[in-house]
Amino acid sequence: MTVDHIGYLSSDINKSIQAFEQIGYVQESEILIDNIPDDNNTIRNVYICFVRNDSTRVELVSPIDEKSDVFFTIRRQGEGPYHICYQVDNLEEQIQQLKKMGWMVLKRPAKAMAFDYSRVVFLFKRGVGMIELVEG
Q1: Taking the model in full, what pTM does it have?
Q2: What residue ranges in the chain does DSSP mark as E strands?
Q3: For residues 39 and 45, is the Cβ–Cβ distance under 8 A?
Q4: CA-CA distance, 70 to 40, in Å (whole number)?
Q5: Tens-place pLDDT, residues 32-74
Q6: SS3 of 136, please?
Q7: How far is 123 from 131, CA to CA, in rounded Å?
């Protein structure tokens, strides 16, 4: 598994972009609207923007409205880092390996527009937190 990015919760994506630019990051993508329904017809309903410095890529994630996946997460834990994303070659194989180590799949793999519709999955393990896997 190779680190792809650090996911960062933001209540206002434009303010977060500015704050990251002040500390040396450069906006790598436009602000994307991720509202693709998954297999359960759940819509993420988030704004996404990638920023990068020399060695680190950060995915800023901000809720569009109260129906967003991350709206209540921000209310509960506030803004800040909330996952590390790893790029993997075989998503299903990696999920099975992680499940054997006690990781729990939070949602079934789904396509993500931020990754050219590659599949992603979020997993959680107590004592570690949440990770994201992106295929490809």
Answers
A1: 0.90
A2: 2-9, 26-27, 32-34, 46-52, 57-63, 80-88, 104-105, 110-112, 118-125, 129-135
A3: no
A4: 17
A5: 998 766 665 566 789 999 999 999 999 999 999 998 889 999 9
A6: coil
A7: 5
Q: Which residues pair with 33 in a beta bridge?
A: 47
User: How far is C-alpha 41 from the geometric centre of its chain's CA atoms?
Assistant: 19
pLDDT at 109 over 70: yes
Q: Which residue has the tokens 């997993």?
A: 123
- Which 8-state DSSP code applies to residue 31? P
Q: Which residue has the tokens 């992603």?
A: 120
Cβ atoms of 2 and 87 closer than 8 Å: yes
CA dist., res. 115 & res. 100, Å (int): 27
pLDDT at 11 over 90: yes
Q: What are phi and psi of 93, to 5 degrees?
A: -65, -45
The amino acid present at 107, given as its one-letter code, is: K
